[in-house]
Structures are given as structure tokens and as C-alpha cells.
Amino acid sequence: MGLKGFVEGGVASVVAGCSTHPLDLIKVRMQLQGETTNFSHQLRPAFAFPSSSATTSLNLSPPPHRVGPISLALRIVHSEGLPALFSGVSATVLRQSLYSTTRMGLYDLFKQRWTDPETKTMHLTKKIAAGLIAGGIGAAVGNPADVAMVRMQADGRLPQAQRRNYKSVFDAITQISKQEGVVSLWRGSSLTVNRAMIVTASQLATYDQIKEAILENGVMEDGMGTHVAASFAAGVVAAVASNPVDVIKTRVMNMKVEIGRPPVYNGAVDCLTKTVRREGFRALYKGFLPTVSRQGPFTVVLFVTLEQVRKLLKEF
User: Fold this and answer.
1) Which pLDDT tens digit goes with each residue over 279-298?
2) Strands, E assignment, the chain
């Protein structure tokens, strides 16, 4: 019974991940807009006295012009070709196979154990707790694929000489391990875990809660309409809750570490501080439009596919 939940969740997650991959790629590119790798000359010190040396040493150039999701998509297609929208899709398949299969399967196990046998429902606090635990474990398992996916999606924005040109997710993981060490595959893992806990708790708990409310109040029957409505609402809630963590996670994971040179960011807090100081608080919601545009369809495809797979595997 428990294993079936992992299979159902895994199949639905891979289908949803592949079908919304271009939106995810655009989101990553937007989150990296305005990022700089030379902060030492662009951050204003907390206390500064006017002097000629201070004036010449600080170059407070304004952040580059931000491009919207549609313009960015057209630019990618024009400069890199239509297939570029699916850059890193192999990493998406591996990530969903590891991360989402784990979180969906564990959440299903918690539901079986924590559901009230009389009412056949689970309290909202238990749903949130189940989502937090399942999301955290799933993220830890899938972090290497997440690092590879972010880098493969972001590669096209770099000059030709600086591109990593990974051939596949396995090539990316191999090269990262050789050049930066195996530990680098878990770079940003604390952010990944935090984001996954937020997304899973908000996404799965919201879906179950809204679906139960719709059925209990007789708004709709248990069918496609109910699944679409509940899943789209869950996607919006997950996008709003997770976007700030997602921006920082993307930047930390995309960071290139070279021997003998200090890293651009010394962890998540440092990345958060530099991002907000240079680009403002709104930078934490960079890529929000493609995020919600991706989370909505992703969550709809995820749960609609999940419900159909459950019907197919009902007799097993």
C-alpha cells in the first residue's frame, strides 16, 4: 500500500515537471537577472564619511534593466533556439524522480497513519506537519539533481566562453563532483530543504483542504472540476510562500566556485543580504509571474495526473 503512493506520486510528478519545464527555465533566468559577481565595489558601507577615495572606490551602478517573462522567452528562442526552453529537462526528470517521488510517497504514508478512521479526514495542522517532514526529506534526497537542473537552465545566459555545456544531468553531476567536490552537489541544500518544506506543506495541505471543503459543501462532485480548482489554488499559495527562498536558492546553486578565489556568496544569509542591498526587497519576488504561472499549471497537472493514476492502480 505504501509503495503504491510513491509510484503514483513519482509518475504524476515527472509528467508535471516535463510539461512545465519551459516555465521553470524562464523563472530561473528571471531570478538571476540583475545578479552581479563583484559585490565588493557595489555595496555601500553601513558607515561612510565623504572623501575623494570613497567616492572613487565605490561604483554604485544601477541594476540592469529587467526583462519580462514573455520578452525573455522570445529572447531565448531567438538567440538559443526553441530547444533551449527544454535545457536541463533530463535534470528535471531525475529531480522529480528523486525529490517528488519521495515527498509524495511520504505524505501519502502520513495521511494513511494520521487520518481519523471515523471522519476519514486529517486535521489541517497534521497536513502541514506531514508536508513539512515529507518535503524536507525529499529535498535532501534530490538536491544533486536540483543543482544540476539550475545550472543547466542558467547556462544559456552566460557568454560562450563561460558556459559549462553539460551534455546531460549525469554529465553535470560528474563534472561538478570532479571540479568542485562531491559536497558541492549539496550546495544550497539548507535552502532547498526549507523551500521544499514550504512548498510541500502549502501545496499538498492546501489541495487536500480545499478539495475536502468543496466536497463537504456540495459545490462540485469529486471529479475533474474539483481537482483543477483545488490544485490551482494550491499552486498559487505555494508560489507566494516559496518565491523568496527560491530566488536565494537559485543564486547560491548557480554560483561558480573557483580555486583560489573567494565565493560570491558565503551562504544563504550573505546572498540574501547582498541581493536586498543591491536590488531591493522586491528582488526576492523576481520571477514571481513565471513562478505562479508555472506552479499553477504544474500543480494542476500534478494532481489531475495523480488522481487518474490512482484510478488506474486502484485494483493493485
Assistant:
1) 998 999 988 887 888 888 99
2) none
